Amino acid sequence: MCKYTGSVPELPEVEALALDLKGRLTDRPITRVDLAAFSALKTFDPPLQALHGTLVEDVTRHGKFLDITASGLHLIVHLARAGWIRWRDDVPKLPARPNSKNPLAARVVLDEDPQTDGGSGLTPGLDITEAGTKKSLAIYVVRDPLEVEGIARLGPDPLDESFTIEVLDQILQDAGRAQIKGVLRHQGTIAGIGNAYSDELLHAARMSPFKPANSLSDAELQTLYDAIRNVLGDAVARSRGLAASELKGEKKSNLAVHGRTGEKCPVCGDTVREVSFADSSLQYCATCQTGGKPLADRRLSRLLK
């Protein structure tokens, strides 16, 4: 059994997940899809049952959306904050049932393939699950990925050849005085970068997360562009080909500042600091990114009053 888990999946992890699932699913028939969390399914036409009896043709991604293509239909999954996918060599014989205490959102059941499964009689499949009480995982069945509003609104993919430094410059200029971290992680501006990798690439670029987007010099623009391509490109290269169970550890072990509050910066040795928000936080190195000046943590300041 393999499990895809860890912090919020971003471009590198979803890329690796798509590649791994492509190897497992391509040319496999889908017997059925069981829905255990009705709120997770965001579409009704085509119905979920339209996937029954289809043949998986490909598995790709759009930003942080996973796309399983089967006989011309698209099963789209957005894992949100706490979702993951578990490969099962043998799924239970009975269909999955709704259960508020069970993290299972949906199950994709595959036909047994005697050549692949050795005639074992096992029924392989995927469990799509979501931990916690805040349910944000989303599942779509569509004829065209662009029918999913989140995909239709995606900005350019930062690892695509069309994502040039001129494209990045225009994005930043259009954002005006908005804080650069928020611009980088906004999916309608640039696809696939989330909280973790925006921290990482800004650290690599030695740039404050609060820096106004349109204030970069030509040299800073080049540095940021290189950081985006290198940080994400290296993460994709490290993740590609890994077993699903290794994705979480690989990501965490290679993060320089994100999730490392109180630890030493691997570049300068200063203490990694944090700024907290209502439902998230960012991490940074003051020496590397803000000229040694700590950023104000307004939530902490209010608690101290």
List the helices and strands and how they pair.
Blueprint: E1 2-3, H1 11-25, E2 30-35, E3 56-62, E4 65-70, E5 73-78, E6 83-88, E7 104-110, H2 114-117, E8 125-130, E9 138-142, H3 149-152, H4 165-175, H5 180-185, H6 195-204, H7 218-239, H8 247-253, E10 272-276, E11 281-285, H9 286-289, H10 298-304
Helix pairs in contact: 1-7, 6-7
Keywords: DNA damage, DNA repair, DNA-binding, Glycosidase, Hydrolase, Lyase, Metal-binding, Multifunctional enzyme, Zinc, Zinc-finger
Cofactor: Zn(2+)
Domain Formamidopyrimidine-DNA glycosylase catalytic: 9-100
Overall description:
The chain is of the alpha+beta class and 305 residues long. The chain has two domains: 2-152, N-terminal domain of MutM-like DNA repair proteins; 165-304, Orthogonal Bundle (Helicase, Ruva Protein, domain 3). 30% of the residues lie in helices and 20% in strands. The protein contains ten helices and eleven strands. It has helices at 11-25, 114-117, 149-152, 165-175, 180-185, 195-204, 218-239, 247-253, 286-289, 298-304; strands spanning 2-3, 30-35, 56-62, 65-70, 73-78, 83-88, 104-110, 125-130, 138-142, 272-276, 281-285. The strands form three sheets. The protein has a five-stranded antiparallel sheet with strand order 1-6-8-7-2, with no helix packed on it. β4 (65-70) and β5 (73-78) form a beta hairpin. α1 packs parallel to α7 (218-239) and α6 crosses α7 (218-239). The protein starts with a strand and ends with a helix. Residues 1-6 and 300-305 have low confidence and may be disordered. Its cofactor is Zn(2+). Residues 256-290 form the FPG-type domain. Keywords: DNA damage, DNA repair, DNA-binding, Glycosidase, Hydrolase, Lyase, Metal-binding, Multifunctional enzyme, Zinc, Zinc-finger.
